[in-house]
């Protein structure tokens, strides 16, 4: 299979070489091509990429505009990437890169999937956008219950990548800016889902990489408008009468890896959320989460621009994350997974009920 890889990075000199080596081992082909798409503040990341020995051919794109999506899109338009049958995209802040994982993703696309995406458990206090909004909404609307829809490790087929590039080109300006940032993950997944099957590669251990909580506002305001915009054209999927079947298989359970948060760290996270939403009491009304998320989706389907709907949803979302962290610290692993599954089902029901939108 003619394969290639894109490695987007910003200030990751301590991990880029190991990721490059693991990706090269997974490709295992001197004809393969690896593009390093870098927007670092200093040259060390690019230098360590260049120094990593590979059998694949390499190309370094440096000095790129900041933004995960902008970097990936710049690389994706490179001729060797555009002609590859499968393109691996790997997070370069990963501290435990495994060639077997990348190889498994490539194999799924080689077998006919439009996209293959890593499914690794996340610690209970992480993946808030995924667990509370992205996963249940994508499942309800598209029928694809992808446990980690915003995962940074994926392989996309040539057909799906070409479709994603076309969609990116036609986006209005505010959404184009989202695609240049963290919205790229939703763009790729939802475009691929319209092209063919989306496969998940299940992993047993949490991924070791930089924490995302400090970037919560940027991730939300770049990913959620894209998520709402691209799911708006889908017809919601009815809940199967037989709950043991979901698109021909059992729904994947939520996996929340347990760990104890230090009180000081938890307090800092809660303080940050309070600062992001100065008046959370206003949003404690008769439409508890996830109903505001369904309202946002219905609003976009009724003509509200996705960025506007996302901005209105923001305080409800931050309140949800705060409530989750506050209650989750006292819950067992089983209780946490049950709470997430229950909210998943409620969101699905609310999306299927237009009259429930306010």
TrEMBL record:
Gene3D superfamilies (alphabetical)? Spore Coat Polysaccharide Biosynthesis Protein SpsA, Chain A
Highest taxon above the source species: Bacteria
The protein's name is: Glycosyl transferase family 2
Q: Which organism is it from?
A: Sphaerimonospora thailandensis
Q: Which InterPro entries match?
A: Nucleotide-diphossugar_trans
């Amino acid at each position: 299979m003619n394969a290639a890889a894109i490695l987007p990075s910003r200030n990751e000199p301590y991990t880029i070489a190991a990721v490059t080596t693991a990706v090269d081992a997974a490709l295992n082909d001197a004809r393969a091509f690896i593009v390093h798409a870098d927007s670092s503040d200093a040259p060390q990341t690019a230098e360590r990429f260049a120094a990593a020995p590979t059998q694949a051919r390499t190309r370094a794109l440096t000095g790129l505009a900041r933004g995960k999506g902008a970097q990936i899109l710049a690389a994706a338009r490179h001729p060797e990437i555009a002609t590859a049958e499968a393109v691996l995209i790997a997070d370069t802040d990963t501290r435990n890169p495994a060639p077997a994982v990348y190889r498994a993703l490539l194999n799924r696309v080689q077998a006919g999937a439009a996209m293959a995406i890593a499914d690794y458990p996340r610690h209970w206090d992480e993946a808030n956008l995924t667990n509370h909004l992205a996963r249940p909404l994508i499942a309800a609307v598209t029928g694809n219950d992808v446990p980690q829809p915003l995962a940074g490790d994926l392989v996309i087929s040539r057909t799906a990548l070409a479709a994603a590039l076309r969609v990116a080109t036609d986006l209005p300006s505010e959404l184009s800016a989202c695609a240049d940032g963290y919205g790229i993950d939703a763009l790729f997944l939802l475009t691929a889902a319209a092209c063919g099957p989306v496969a998940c590669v299940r992993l047993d251990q949490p991924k070791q990489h930089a924490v995302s909580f400090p970037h919560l506002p940027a991730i939300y305001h770049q990913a959620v408008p894209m998520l709402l915009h691209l799911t708006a054209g889908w017809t919601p999927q009815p809940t199967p009468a037989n709950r043991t079947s979901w698109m021909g298989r059992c729904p994947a359970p939520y996996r929340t890896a347990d760990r104890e948060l230090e009180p000081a760290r938890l307090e800092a996270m809660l303080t940050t959320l309070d600062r992001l939403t100065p008046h959370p009491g206003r949003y404690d009304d008769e439409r508890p989460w996830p109903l505001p998320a369904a309202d946002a989706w219905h609003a976009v389907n009724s003509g509200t621009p996705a960025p506007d709907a996302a901005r209105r949803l923001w305080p409800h979302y931050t309140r949800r994350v705060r409530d989750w962290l506050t209650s989750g610290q006292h819950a067992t692993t089983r209780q946490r997974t049950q709470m997430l599954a229950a909210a998943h089902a409620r969101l699905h029901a609310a999306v299927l009920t237009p009259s429930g939108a306010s």
